[in-house]
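re: ur question from earlier - yeah i can do the single chain one, its not a big deal. heres the input i used so u can compare w yours
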Amino acid sequence: MKGFLLYFFLINVLAFAIFGLDKWKAIHGRWRISEKTLLLSALAGGFLGAFLGMHYFHHKTRHKKFVYGVPVIGTLEIAASLFAILVW
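and the output i got, formated as tokens:
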């Protein structure tokens, strides 16, 4: 269980960081992190980090794919977690 919690902590920190890094790269005209990678970080369990990163850095908040996609991913992750807790 500790490993599971550590994974979710680290993936959320990573998701938050890559949203911040991509925003920095956008401002400075650097090579960007792909939208696919940003969304995969949320899908890998980093929904909260991605959501907080979007709003803290004001990044990807106009893209429907992110505005709707990240909360949907989060809802599915929460539902799956609750199901796993209740079943096991």
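Residues 2-87 form one domain. not sure if urs matches, ping me
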